[in-house]
Design a protein that fits this description.
heterodimer; A: mainly beta; 11 strands; B: 193 residues; mainly beta; Lipocalin; 8-stranded antiparallel β-barrel; 2 helices; 11% helix
Chain lengths: 216, 193
């Protein structure tokens, strides 16, 4: 959205009511502009085409991986205005390492405690662009019993029309590393590493408005 | 509890640091739960598909003085799981792994590569859907130690490679909905026999 051109000539704001109206108009435009770029594209995460993977050192000898089977989220992007927002939600109980006993342990009280903390959620606070290319996202990750700031690195973002479905969408490769101890998940540190490498392959399809995107 | 784990970790690190100057060939068997091969492949124009195989068996021999050894891995193709579960049946079907006809794929080494006494790569042959082709696995983070719980000596590593699936005749979707290159990552934990 473009700000209207400044009126020519001397400033006309002389009386109280007129000044208030101008101030209100400017404030409204400012809010719309800053809070939500009105010509941002809104995308809904496609859970089937999205992979939320983690990797952690085990016994200091190998990197063990797993993923969360259930994800959802909404992405708003306006590359020209360098604005947007990301809200990405993971169902903690959908943790999947290909070994049922290990999954049950990870869902349990010593690790994710999914009965008390069913959701892992990332909400952006700021998007970083290099030109019109999204390269990073600052935000807050809520996991287990804590909410902490996290920086995401965007390694790849491709947008276009999916030839199979004809829908407009984007695919992104996003990664970061967190310390699980920062989120109060301290069990078996030293046996299972503290550093958790997170790697997301996200596919999201364009929706016509925020209303069509997943509710939070 | 954390102190106990700290002690375990320390013991493990010490055993890794001191190492075991292998005088002769050692034999190892992989721990399937901690050695699940995973893959990544481009899907449509902007997505990347991931999945893994939950069942595999492996035997490894290694002589770090003589710098030789062998790797023999069998992967149960019926255990393939995509992160997109809609694809599992398709991947098991005739156009892809054809698991009814080819229930396993195998990797058999022909040579091992060392840098000093560290294993850095394995040359071998991958047999998949009845076709055998040479593949070189890059090996990183090869190290040995002891499981702090059961005290068994063991080694860990990560093996990775990228193959073109069309070279094995798996051409469905190549150039249309999905990629030809498949990135393969295999964590390894193996116990000494």
């Amino acid at each position: 959205m473009r700000l209207p051109a400044r009126p020519a000539g001397p400033r006309r704001c002389r009386t109280g009511a007129w000044c208030f109206a101008v101030a209100a108009l400017v404030a409204t435009i400012g809010l719309v502009h800053a809070g939500e770029a009105t010509d941002a594209s809104i995308y809904r995460v496609d859970p089937d085409l999205t992979s939320a993977q983690f990797a952690v050192s085990h016994l200091g000898l190998s990197m063990q991986r797993g993923h969360f089977g259930r994800t959802r989220g909404t992405i708003a992007l306006n590359p020209e205005a360098h604005t947007g927002r990301i809200d990405f939600i993971v169902d903690a109980a959908s943790i999947d390492t290909g070994w049922a006993a290990r999954d049950a342990f990870l869902r349990g009280e010593d690790m994710f405690d999914t009965a008390r903390y069913p959701v892992v959620r990332f909400r952006s606070t700021r998007l970083a662009f290099d030109g019109s290319r999204l390269v990073g996202v600052s935000g807050e990750l809520t996991m287990h019993n804590a909410t902490r700031p996290v920086e995401l690195h965007v390694a790849r973002l491709d947008c276009g029309r999916d030839p199979d479905s004809g829908r407009d969408g984007c695919g992104a490769e996003v990664d970061t590393t967190i310390k699980r101890s920062d989120f109060g998940m301290r069990y078996a540190l030293g046996i299972v590493g503290d550093d958790i490498a997170l790697s997301f392959q996200v596919t999201a399809f364009r929706v016509s408005s925020d209303d069509e995107a997943d509710p939070p | 509890m954390p102190r106990q784990f700290g002690a375990f970790a320390l013991a493990l690190l010490l055993s890794v640091a001191t190492g075991t100057a292998a005088a002769a060939e050692e034999s190892y068997v992989t721990d399937p739960a901690h050695s699940q091969p995973s893959y990544e492949i481009r899907h449509t124009i902007f997505s990347t598909q991931r999945g893994d195989f939950t069942k595999s068996t492996g035997k490894i021999t290694i002589d770090r003085e003589a710098k030789k050894g062998s790797v023999d891995v069998t992967i149960d193709t019926t255990s393939i799981r995509s992160h997109d579960p809609r694809l599992d049946a398709i991947l098991k079907g005739e156009d892809y792994f054809n698991v009814a006809k080819y229930p396993t794929m195998t990797f058999k080494s022909t040579a091992m590569r060392f840098d000093g006494d560290r294993l850095t790569g394995v040359d071998g042959e991958l047999t998949m859907i009845g076709v055998t082709r040479p593949v070189t696995l890059k090996v990183t983070d090869f190290q040995c130690g002891e499981n702090p719980f059961n005290k068994k000596p063991m080694c860990g590593a990560e093996a990775s490679t990228t193959i073109k699936r069309s070279e094995w005749g798996m051409k469905a979707g190549v150039g249309r909905s999905s990629g030809d290159e498949v990135k393969i990552t295999i964590p390894i934990e193996a116990y000494r026999e």
